[in-house]
Design a protein that fits this description.
single chain; about 525 residues; mainly beta; Immunoglobulin-like; 4 domains; 13-stranded antiparallel sheet; five-stranded mixed sheet; about 0% helix
């Protein structure tokens, strides 16, 4: 070790200069990886004899650091420098830094540190200090020259890195993705470890998954150094974030469809919350478009619930199940054309009418329907679901030929877990027919909203009894084909909104009202 580096052993705290790079996702600050002794962050510890460490969940990213030392040149407790120090955190460079120290007996004998990221990231600010050369007099045995080579890779292959100087005057030269200390025979180019003249700044514009730095004596060195070291302070990185998008449209006409609920779930089926803290659920707009952004790389599932008046015809993955699996990675950062294709629903040849779910309060609900006599029907079955796709049976009501045609089934949703109820008709011949799916909407809508008159002649009024002016209701009137006819927001100051239906033909319409991400559907009859 040089005289300078031995002197640094006595310094407990140092000045660390880290430039802040630009995050690839402008909505977020870069994540910071810190070493032992830092005042915040993950405070990674590297002990004298460590060769592999994994540092978990640094803003959602795990980082593995591995020492690659086939020639056993890294300084350890069994292979110390002449001053009995070695590669570790909180050493002669002070708290919050890693001292990467090696020995050599020939020039160009590299020891490498490999940084592997569990998700693709861009390096926004990675600095190295103390890149220099020392020659004390004519004694070649005390001569060393720092040389470091950098490389990076992702699933796509090699990733280019940008090396830049932190000072106009440096103790080194940059050669592509390598730096080498300047060599002048008989001249001591040694500097203090915190000076920018001996520091290099590394960034990547493209995402990487592995970053490698290999440290050795330079080609002009005699190779006989008892030890030499570089300082690695904290560094910054930005997680690569992606986007999933698509459309919902009608088969045949290619007409885009609004009013379709689309959700994004993870591998465990949980609704995804993106890096902005936003729940990934939306309803398609007039263009039939949906988009989920600021998503970490990984496996996702898009789930679509059919708009009113439509059945599923096909999905972009050619599996007609209203589900599309998407993998985001460096080869597919933005996943487009995850489309769902719908077809106009054919009226069911069943004997039901007026299926309604009534909120009785205290988490109790009552499903009510009317059924005309049928000689083939055996029983009805009620199902509940949290996502409108996957349903679980909760009870049966057997068909009664002389039961008067009116049926009801009460159920409890005390947990608040379920959001949809489905009614099925089961016939004696084994035929199962879906009679309807209804939303268990927030109590807020039932409490505040009244729709009248119904049936409608010219106008239908949405009346809101608001005590809290922060409540906002969206409304949308659609026809049986799923086309939006009127949409807007309920004016809380006036307390009501009138919708003019005089120009629309007689028939059945749907009025959808929402307080947030859940919509309640009201059937409107136009005379």
């Amino acid at each position: 070790m040089s005289t300078k580096k031995y002197y640094l052993f006595s310094i407990l705290f140092t000045i660390c200069s880290v430039l802040v790079g630009q995050n690839t996702s402008s909505s977020f600050q870069p994540s910071v990886f810190t070493w032992e002794g830092a005042t915040k962050g993950n405070k990674a510890v590297w002990k004298a004899d460590d060769t592999l460490n994994v540092y978990k969940d640094i803003d959602g990213v795990d980082i593995q650091i591995k020492l690659i030392d086939p020639l056993h040149l890294n300084t350890t407790t069994k292979n110390p420098s002449e001053f009995n120090d070695f590669t570790k955190t909180n050493t002669f460079y002070g708290s919050g830094n890693l001292a990467f120290q090696i020995k050599s007996n020939l020039s160009a004998q590299p020891v490498c540190l490999e940084f592997a990221f569990s998700k693709p990231v861009t390096l926004t600010s990675y600095n190295l200090y103390d890149i220099d050369m020392l020659q004390s007099g004519d004694n070649l045995l005390s001569t060393y020259q720092d040389s470091i080579h950098f490389s990076a890779a992702s699933k796509k292959g090699s990733v280019p890195l940008t090396l830049s100087k932190l000072s106009d005057s440096t103790t080194y030269n940059i050669y592509g993705q390598s730096v080498k200390a300047k060599f002048k025979a008989g001249v001591n180019g040694d500097i203090s470890h915190f000076k920018k003249e001996g520091a290099v700044h590394i960034t990547s514009a493209e995402p990487l998954e592995k970053f490698l730095l290999c440290y050795s004596n330079g080609s002009e060195d005699d190779g006989m150094s008892n030890s030499h070291a570089i300082k690695i302070p904290q560094f910054e990185f930005a997680e690569l974030l992606g986007r999933i998008e698509g459309k919902v449209y009608e088969y045949g006409t290619q007409q885009t469809l609004s009013g379709a609920v689309v959700r994004l779930v993870d591998t465990s089926g949980e609704l995804v919350i993106n890096k902005e803290g936003i729940v990934m659920q939306s309803m398609t707009d007039e263009s039939g478009f949906y988009s989920f952004s600021f998503l970490p790389m990984g496996q996702y599932r898009v789930i679509q619930i059919n708009p009113a008046g439509y059945d599923s015809f096909n999905d972009a993955d050619n599996v007609n199940d209203n589900k599309i699996d998407v993998l985001l990675d460096v080869t597919n950062v933005i996943s487009q054309f995850n489309d769902f294709i719908e077809i106009k629903a054919i009226p069911l040849a069943v004997n039901t009418s007026d299926i309604n779910v009534i909120n009785l309060g205290n988490h109790q609900h009552n499903l009510m329907w009317n059924f005309k006599p049928s000689f083939n029907t055996e029983y009805f079955e009620v199902y509940l679901s949290d996502n409108g796709i996957d349903f679980s049976p909760v009870g049966k009501i057997f068909y009664a030929e002389n039961g008067g045609g009116n049926y009801a089934f009460s159920f409890d949703d005390r947990s608040g877990y379920y959001k949809y109820v489905k009614l099925m008709q089961n016939d004696l011949d084994g035929t199962m027919t879906e009679l309807g799916v209804l939303s268990l909407n927030p109590d807020l809508i039932d409490h505040y909203v009244k729709i009248f008159p119904n049936p409608v002649i010219d106008h239908v009024r949405i009346s809101g009894n608001f005590q809290d002016n922060e409540i906002v209701l969206d409304y949308k009137l659609i026809n049986m084909a799923g086309q939006s006819l009127h949409l807007g927001k309920l004016d809380v100051n006036d307390g009501y909104t009138d919708i003019d239906m005089s120009a629309h033909p007689s028939g059945t319409y749907y009025l959808l009202i929402s307080t947030s991400d859940l919509w309640k559907t009201f059937k409107i009859i136009k005379k």
